[in-house]
Structure formats: C-alpha cells, structure tokens
Specification:
InterPro entries: Ac_transferase_dom_sf (IPR001227), Acyl_Trfase/lysoPLipase (IPR016035), Ketoacyl_synth_C (IPR014031), PKS-FAS_Synthase (IPR052568), Thiolase-like (IPR016039)
Radius of gyration: 30 Å
CATH architecture of the largest domain: 3-Layer(aba) Sandwich
Distance between the termini: 80 Å
GO molecular function: acyltransferase activity
Structural class: alpha/beta
CATH topology of the largest domain: Malonyl-Coenzyme A Acyl Carrier Protein, domain 2
Protein name: Beta-ketoacyl synthase C-terminal domain-containing protein
CATH class of the largest domain: Alpha Beta
Low-confidence stretches: 631-641, 666-698
Number of strands: 21
Mean pLDDT: 85
Shape: globular
Pfam families: Ketoacyl-synt_C
Domain Beta-ketoacyl synthase C-terminal: 17-56
Length: 698
Amino acid sequence: GVAAAYAAPPGSAAGAARTVAVGTAKSCVGHTGYASGAAALIKSALCLYNRYLPSTPRWKAPKRHLAAEWEASNLYVCPKSRAWVANEAGSRHVAVSGVSSTTPDSSFHVLLSDAAQQYEEHNVATLDPAAPKLLVLGGESPEAIIVASRAALERLGHKETEAEAEFGALLLATVAAEKAAAAPRFALCLVCCAATLKKELELAANGVATAAASGRTYASVAGSCFSPKPTRSKQVAFMYGDGSSPYIGLGRDLHRIAPSVHEFVQRATTAMWGAKHDTWNPRGVLHEAMEADGKAFEKRTVDMFRSGVYHAVCFTHVARELLHVRPTHAFGLSLGEAAAYFAFDETNSKQSDAVLASLDASPVWTEALAYTDGNGAGFSALRKAWGVPEDAPVASFWAGFAVQASRAQVEAALAQLGAAADCVRLLIVNDTHTCIVAGKPAQCQALVAQLNCQAMPIEQGMAGHCKEAIPFRDEIARVHSMLRVPHGGAAEGVTFYTSSNGGSVATLPADGRNAGPLVANVYCNTADFPALVSAAAERGAEVFVEVGAGDLRAAAARDVLGKRGAPHVAVAFDRRGADPWRQLLKMAATLISNGATGCQIGGLYHPTLLKAFDTQLHGPPVKKAVKAARKRIEINGRFRGMTRDALRRAPDRAPDSPDFRLLANLKRIPTSLIDLSAMSTASTPAGSSSSLRELDER
C-alpha cells in the first residue's frame, strides 16, 4: 500500500525521517462517492498551489493491523494545518492514489509536481468575508474623527448590502491613503468585518470622545484603537524573546498571511526546513504520540532555539518588508540576542544549518547544561557542581519558578538565606516585579517563603545565565563563532544592544565583528530585560515591537517604561492562543494610530478582494473610449455622467437638489449618449463629421 511505497530507507530507524504527509479528501469534505478521485486530485493541486498541508480532522491512529507498517514508513499525519516549506531549489511533489469500488483490482496513481512561479502569492485569509480587516479613518483632530465615524454610521443604513458597500469604500480609502505623501494627525483604526462594522463604529464614536477627554488610548476588544496623544516617533526597537518563548504550533498561519515568506526562507536560510527542523510541528502517525512529543518540546533546548531563530527571521521579514516598519534599535533577551543577529543579517541566517548542527553536536546543549533527552537525564555540570548522583532525576535538583519580586528583592533574599539557598540561581530579570529563578526545589521554595511573594513553576530546559555555565564559555563562543554582529543591509542604521558585559548593557555598532564571545558572555550572566529596555529608551526608542514568539517582551516593556513615566508604545507580532491574523491587525492598528512608524497594511490584502470592492462601488471597468466620452458630458455645468448611486454619495444629494431632479428626468439619456459615443468611435473613421466625440469637441 501507500505505507509500503514510502517505507524508510534501508538502514535508517523506523519512522525516523517522516518526510511524506498523508491526508484524504474525505476528512475535509466528507463522502464524495464516485467523485472522490476528482476531489482528491483537486485537493492535491490546491496543496501545491497554496504550499499548504491541511489538517486531517479527527485522526487518531491507523487501523490496528496496519499500525506497525505505518510506524515503519516515512508517512506522517497533520493534526493541524501547516505550511509546506521547501529548501532552496527544493521541489514539492504530491501523489493521488485510489481504488475502484466497482471494478475489482482497478486502481489509479497520479503524481503532480510544482512549477516555478505558479503559487498563490497573496493572503487568501482576507478573502473570507468573516475575516477581520483594518480600516483607518483619518482626521486633523479627534472631533474630525468623531464626525467621520458618525457620517459612516449614517451611510450604513439597515441593509446588508449597504453595510458591505460602506465597508468596501472604507477599505479602499484605507489602502489609497497609504500612498499619500502626508498622513493625518490622528487616526482611528477599526478591526472588523462588514458584519461588525456598525458595532465597532458605535463603540468608537463614544470611545474616541472619552479618549480625547481623558488623554487615554481607546481600544476595543476586537482590536480597534485610537490614540489621543500619538507618539509620532520613528524610533522603533525590535525585541526578541528568550529561548523558552517558542511553543508548539508557532507561526502555523504565517505563510498563508504572507506567502512571500516561502521565497524569503529559500533565499535567506540554508537547509532550514526538514523533518529535523520543524519540530514545533510534530510529525507522526499516532495522535497520542504527537501530543506527547509536543509536551516534550519545551525540554528540547536545541529545538526551542531552532524555532526561535526561524520565526524571528520570518517575523522580522514580514514586519520590515510587508508592513514597512523599519527599526532603528534591536535587542533580545538571552538567546533572543542571537536571534536578532540571525534576523538582521543574511550572512548569519545562511549559516543556520551549520550553527544548528554545531548545537546538536555540542555537549553543552545535549548533556552538560541541558536535558539529554525528554526522559529526565542530563545536566551533568550541575550534578558535578552540586554533588548530585548521576541517576537522580533532573526534577529533584533543577526546577524553575517565576517569582513576583524585583531583582533587588531577590538578590537581598538570596544573601539573607546564604547556604540555605546556595543552589538557587537568579537567571532572568523579566520586568520590574518578576524574576526567573531555578535550582533545587526545596531551596527555591525557601526563597519564595523568604520573599513572601507569589511564585509559579516554569520549565527551564537549560541551565544558562549562572556561574555553572562559565566553564563552558569557550565552547559556547566556538559554536556561535560563525555568527557576526549584523552588518549592512537590513542592519543599516540599527543600533544593537548586548547584555554581555557582566550584566550591564552596551551598544554595538553594526560592524560585523565576531558574535561568538558576545553570545558566550550572555550565557554566563544574569539576563536583565529591564536594563535592555531602559538602555534603548535612553537612546530615543519610543516604539517597541516584539518580533518573535508570544507577547511577554511587549508586556514587560510596557511595565518598565510605564514605571519610568516614559512615552512609549509596545506591541507584539504574536500572541500565544490568539488568531495570528487578528493579532497582526491589532499590532498594526496600534502602530498606525500612533503615527510615523510607516506601518502599512494594504500589501497584505488579496488583490481579488480589493478588485471586488472596487467593482461593487464603481461598476466594472469601462473601456477607454467610453470613459473619455463620459468625462466630456456635462449637465448643469457640474454633473459629469454620474449614476444615481454616485449622485447619492455626492454633497448635493437631497431629492430636491437641481442635479438630482435633472438626473431623474433624464433617466437613461446620458448612458445612451455614452453608448453612442463608444459605437461611433469604434465604427467611424477618424475625422468623420458624424463622430460624436468630434461634435462634442466642437
């Protein structure tokens, strides 16, 4: 069968490769009877065109008598949809197999391959009418925004078609305004679809007034927002989270929202995609096994690092090239500093396969300071330093906690406890009131009691940012020695920050120096995120964008800068558990409402969507000859061939206005003249006296 056709290569471990995704049309659309072959072929072709592997709903496991054969094959099932990414010069192939239920021993097998440049290039998610879009109402004052909101509400009416027309008009106006030379002083950003436009406008009409009176930003649950005091700052900082930020399923819809990421990955990375590399999307044939693999992900340090780097590179590309947000500052917490080096320099990202291979082979990440596997072995450096038996489970001597206390409070409590907490380490300072500590569980609990604060257990898959990492400084530097501080290209004009100087923060010129020693020093010192944020703010940064997994860095930046009383905006590209497209719109809405960041959203709308709205509002495209004649027809010195719908949108739209009465009396005469003009232009030789165009010009 199919499993036998895709058996693992001789000599390889059973199911080690998992390079062939398998699915059925039936799982997506149900029974199709005699059309099942055609349905499977259509689905397969769409997978190639969209570079997308759809999920197989309700999959649990193959039938019992086939389980061993499936386990030994290269097949895997997608419990969740995911991108179908290929390495540079790699091709995609799909096979459609079927058997006949009416003709014994009859079957078919069709092979399809992709073709260069024959892919979906735009965001298909926006074609869904229920998918939210971002609409912008601009004005020179909050009062003007309120007037525009109420005017839009008046135009909505009560019919669904009127709501769609108004929604389309606002969307087209938003895209057109992005090309204007100057932006309005204030902007109300609405995150909605046609069905929810009225609700968001009603909320905004009141919310903007309240915001203007209080000076506080208005924000709706859907993501609409208005800033009465926009920062209008071009000083943008990109932030990258630590190694524990990535999670299973991160970035699943990114390639649908921004298909150009496929080409970018092929250009900017080397062998970054394969069964080994996308471990944040488990591959298997047993649902329970894939769930267990996902839970073990947080203990696989190299896989977490791989995911963090990959998504930092992709998210940065989307933010810079598609949203047009160009940073002037960049920094990362812990491993986020290395992720920033990858994201801003293609020389580094082209080394991704080599760096990851070094990590896989280094004892630092596979045994000394991390788990050997997901079953509790590893951390030999801690065992040796603390006298822990080799057979003791890691959980007995290494546990992490997020404690609700400042750095000063934690350090003071550790000093007071002395030997009673000699195996507790302050690893990360998250914000002004949260720190990450790890060590022997009983001693960590004693620290929490000394602090008299709340604490939450947190997985720590690696023992970094502590003195036990110092003996491995040279090895860490060697592994990262192929990286450089970003130089040229995307790094031009960007100030980088490092916490490699014994915990203090320093700026780095984008000069291409060897980044290995910098990364090694970061591993050996407490990572202090508030210090990084404060350093960037002191050099003028006011807009902070988290370009990585989750939104914890954005929340921490708001906390740090809020306590300082510094003007700021902090947003996140991603948020765990949130719809990726809506989260991106929320981020863009906040940036646009604050002005000057250059953020644009028009490039992420599908051209088919914009064309459909344009046709709905203005009718189908008019031939040039007809369009030229229409411009020359004047009624009452003001009216130029406008239709009744267009006239209703004009300022003088009252039923008793001269233009309205004249159009009602003329009925279809202007249209007839236009049609006659088109016919005469097409059939009459140039210069003929019977040409309506020439008569009009005379």
